[in-house]
Amino acid sequence: MGRYSLATRAVLALLILTLLILAGACANIAKVSDETIPRLVTPLSEADFSTLVQQLQPLMNYQSLRSSRVSIQFIDAESAERYRTADAQLVLRRPDKIRLIVQLPVAGTKIAEMVSQDNQFRVAIYRDPYKRFLVGTNNADYSQWRAKLGGREKQSALINARPFHFTDALLIRPLHLGETQFVYSLEEALVEEPDLHKGAKKGARLLRSFYVISELGLPATGQGPTHTQRRFWFDRTDQVRLARQQIFDERGTMATEVFYSNYLKLNPESPQLWPGVVLVMRPHDNYSARLIFREGGGELNPPDLPESAFVLENKEGLPETNLDKP
Fold first, then answer.
1. 179-192: b (≥16 Cβ within 10 Å) or e
2. 3-class SS at 326?
3. Which single residue of 11, 69, 94, 128 could bond 297 by disulfide (Cβ 3.0 to 4.6 Å)?
4. Is the pLDDT assigned to residue 259 strictly greater than 90?
5. Which residues of 12-48 are buried (b: 16+ CB within 10 A; e: fewer)?
């Protein structure tokens, strides 16, 4: 009758069949799990704190910037109006001087003009229904004044925008390395995002890895919590370039969030790269602005920036509002 009995053969066959069914089920389970778990984007660049600071250094070293080939688009959360992309002229000089002119493409008609220096700003808006000349202080809170303007038809990104909102975004303030009142931390952050690659399955997600440097201010008295002042995000899938900066106010509220991408040569004579797209977000002012720079469309550290470049007078006779006076 052979080595095994008929009953033994039947048991072995049933066992083999069961194992095959279980193996198939496990394969299906693994397949489903693989589709639903976000996939980490690779390859990843490795860097330490010193290397990341070196990446920041050129952007912190620039003393001035001039560009007449910039596109700007305001993105307004409150206003019923939507803005097309406009042309812009931009001049900056450390520590806090800036002039921004927004004008219609081709025609060159001015839409708005704004300057800031020494903690004071001036904004001229040349278009109806927002025509006015605003004067105020950079670190003052004018949210109550904006609330008094009324509904959406009187709200505008041009009303809420301040020139100093762009200063720290474009001329990054140096780090306080070696100063006793500041400490720095380094960590990895994983950000989940949709998989937009060609052929990606519907609902597929990715995890993008960033190095994050946090700048913490210590309390002057030595007591109390530390205060996060800035965070710098470096994309590990893009040669650890700076991808994002977050700036917080003294209450720990995120005042400005800036995204950097599409690095290019702003100055053809300089080997340093400049972010070609800079998205400045002011969440508590309900607007954002996207700046698009062009290759070879500007000068870094231009030698001839007169003081008059940062002076703005109300030559058009616009209705004037001093926000620091009742």
1. eeeeeeeeeeeeee
2. coil
3. 69
4. yes
5. eeeeeeeeeeeeeeeeeeeeeeeeeebeebeeeeebe
In angstroms, the CA 269 to CA 245 distance is: 27
Query: What pLDDT was estimated at residue 207?
Result: 96
Alpha carbon 121 to chain centroid, angstroms: 23
- pLDDT reading at 4 higher than 70: no
CA 301 and chain centroid, separation: 23
Tokens of 219: 């309390």
Pairing of strands 287-293, 64-76: antiparallel
* E strand map for the chain: 39-40, 64-76, 86-93, 97-103, 110-117, 120-125, 132-137, 182-194, 205-217, 227-235, 241-248, 254-264, 274-282, 287-293, 298-300, 320-322
Q: Which two tokens stand for residue 170?
A: 């474009």
Q: Phi, psi at residue 139, to the nearest 5°? A: -90, 15
Of 62, 105, 71, 75, residue with least CA distance to 89: 71
Interacting residues of 231 by C-beta distance below 8 A, sequence separation 6+: 212, 213, 214, 215, 244, 245, 246
Cα 86 from Cα 69, distance rounded (Å):
11
The conformation of residue 284, written as its DSSP 8-state character, comes to G
Helix (H, G, I), strand (E, B) or coil at 83: coil
Determine the Cα–Cα distance for residues 215 and 213; give it in Å rounded to an integer.
7
What is the DSSP code string of 153-199? GG--HHHH--THHHHHHHSPPPP-TT-TTEEEEEEEEEEEEE--STT
**Of the candidate ranges 98-112, 134-148, 149-163, the one whose mean pLDDT is the lowest:** 149-163
User: Where along the chain do its domains lie?
Assistant: 66-171+304-322, 182-300
